Each structure stands twice: as structure tokens, then as C-alpha cells.
Protein: 1,4-dihydroxy-2-naphthoate octaprenyltransferase
Organism: Thalassobellus suaedae
Amino acid sequence: MKNIFLWISAMRLRTLPLSISGIILASCFAEYNGFFNLKVCGLAILTTLSFQILSNLANDYGDGLKGTDNEDRIGTKACHSIRCYITRRYV
């Protein structure tokens, strides 16, 4: 269960609403002009969320490689925590 919590923490869910705000606004304009398509809107939201989560994980990975994400860091230490979990489990 702790492994799932670490990965969810690394995804930084608090950044996701801002990532879909542009899609929601564009969908409102499309509906107003009569061009709204629910399938396109749903796929756009899924794509945006996937890119945002991937970007957050890549950022944490880069911080871990550079050494920015270590025990002295103030704030979330996602990559370091996950790496410690993986190291303890598989080594």
C-alpha cells in the first residue's frame, strides 16, 4: 500500500486541475459555437492528464539523477522515496 501512495504522491495530483482547465475552456467555446464533441473532449482530457503526470514523473526522475531530490530537500521527495522503496524491495 505504501508503494501506491508513493507513486500517487509522485504524480502530484494537485497539478492536474490546472492542466485540464484549457480543455474545459475550449470545450465551452466549442459548445457555444455548436462544434462540441464529447468523445474529442474526453480524449483531450485523458491526453492532457497523461502528459501532465508523465511530466511530473520525469521532473522527479531528473531531480533524482541530478541529486536535487535527496534527504536534505524541503518538500516532497518523490523520486528519492520511490528509489528507496525499490532498493529495499528488490536488492
Notes: Residues 38-66 form the longest helix (29 residues). The chain has a mean pLDDT of 80.
